[in-house]
Amino acid sequence: MALLYKADPTRGEIWKRVLADRAPDLEVRLWPEVGDPRDIRLLLAWEPPEDPIAAFPNLEMILSVSAGVDQFDFSRIPPEVPVVRMLDPNIVEGMVSYVAMAVLALHRDLPTYIDARAEGRWHQILNRPAAERRIGILGAGRLGSAVLAALAPFGFPLAVWARTPREMAGAEVFVGADGLDAFLARTDILVCLLPLTEETRGILGAATFSRLPEGASIVNVGRGGHLVTADLVAALDEGRLSAAILDVADAEPPPPDHPFWTHPRILLTPHIASHTRPETAVDAVLDAIRRHRAGETPIGLVSRDRGY
Ligand code: NDP
Predict the structure, then answer these.
(1) pLDDT tens-digit profile of 131-172?
(2) What's the mean pLDDT in 274-288?
(3) Residues 180, 37 share a domain
C-alpha cells in the first residue's frame, strides 16, 4: 500500500517529510518515481494522470492538493474511487487575509490612488462609510463563510449567494438562480468564491455586471474560468465597473499582451490568495485516509453530481 504524490516537486519533498513524521507506516512515493503501479492505493495530486485507473489499477482514493477540483476529469475516475478536496486551515487563513485586503483596498479606493500617484496628482476622495458599502460573496462554503466572519467587524452590509438555503449570522442569504438578481442589485463589491463548475463558468460576465450597481467592483479569487475577460474590460472601460482585483486567470500566467497586465483598473496577483501548506494540511489528509479505511465518508468528499 503506497501513497503517490503528483504535484509541485519542491512541495513533494516537504509532503514526504511531513508524512514520514506523522504516519511512518505509510509508504510515500513522489511522481515520477512510481515504482510498481499496482502498489499505488492513494493518490495525492494536483492533476491525476489522464486515465488514473489504467495507470494505477488498485487505486482506492484520490486526494486533491487544492481546495478546488475543477482540474479533474471525473469522466475518467470511476465512482467507487472517492475524490476528496483539500481542507487545509492554511488555505482558509490565506483566503481570509487576501479577500480582506482586496475588499478594503476597493472600499478605500486604492486603485484610484495608484493611478493618481503615477500621474503625480494629489487626489483626495472622501471616504464612504462601511455601512454604505455592500459586500456580496458568491459562494458561502468553507472559504466564503470564513471571509464573511472576518469582514463582519468592519460594518459592511454583507450578503452571500449559495446553491442551497441556510441561515448565516450577520449576512443576508440569497439562493440559486432565483436569488441572483436581488443579490447583485444590492452588491457594491462582488467577491467570487465559487467552485468552477458547468453552472458557474463565466458567471463574472456581461449579464452579471449589468445587474450590479453602476461603479461596483469585483474580486475574483475563484478560478479564471469564472470570468469573461472581454466583458470585464468592456464594463471597466464603460465605467459600469470601477475596478477589479484578480488572483486567478484563464491561462496562468496570462500571455504578455493580456489586458490583466496593463488595464489601469485591474490589479492582478499570481494565484497566491492561499496555498496548501503540508505542515497544516497533513491532518486533513490523514483523517481522510483513516475514515476511508474505516468505511466512513471522508470529510471534503467531492460530489460527482454537483461537481464540487
Ligand atoms: P465549498 O465547496 O466549501 O463552497 C462552495 C460554495 O459555492 C458553496 O456555498 C456552494 O453552495 C456555492 N455554489 C457552488 N455552486 C453554486 C451554484 N451553481 N450556485 C450558487 N452557489 C454555488 O468551497 P470552498 O469555499 O472551499 O472553495 C471555493 C473555491 O475557491 C474553490 O473551489 C476554488 O475554486 C477557490 N479557491 C481559490 C484559491 C486561490 O488561491 N485563489 C485557493 C482555494 C480555493 P452550497 O453551500 O449551497 O453547496
Answers:
(1) 999 999 999 999 999 999 999 999 999 999 999 999 999 999
(2) 97
(3) no
Say whether pLDDT at 1 is over 90: no
* Ligand 1 site, residue 88, Cβ cutoff 6 A: no
117 and 98 in a common domain: yes
Q: Is 300 in the pocket of ligand 1 (CB under 6 A)?
A: no
Cβ density class 139-155: b for 16+ within 10 Å, e for less = bbbbbbbbbbebbeeee
Counting from 1 in the atom list of ligand 1, the atom nearest the Cα of 274 is 40
User: 16: exposed, middle or buried (C-beta count within 10 Å: 0-12, 13-18, 19+)?
Assistant: middle
Mutational test site, ligand 1, from 196, 280, 308, max ligand atoms within 8 Å of CB: 308
Domain match, 202 and 80 both:
no
Residue range of the domain that includes 118? 91-268
Provide CB contacts within 8 A for 220, sequence distance 6+: 192, 204, 226, 227, 244, 245, 246, 247, 248
Q: Is the CB of 140 under 6 A from ligand 1?
A: yes
Question: Domain tally for the chain?
Answer: 2
What are phi and psi for residue 240, nearest 5 degrees?
-65, -40
Is 226 among the catalytic positions? Answer: no
Three-state DSSP at 182 gives: helix
The verdict on 263 and 186 lying in the same domain is: yes
Q: Name residue, grid cell 468564491.
A: 193
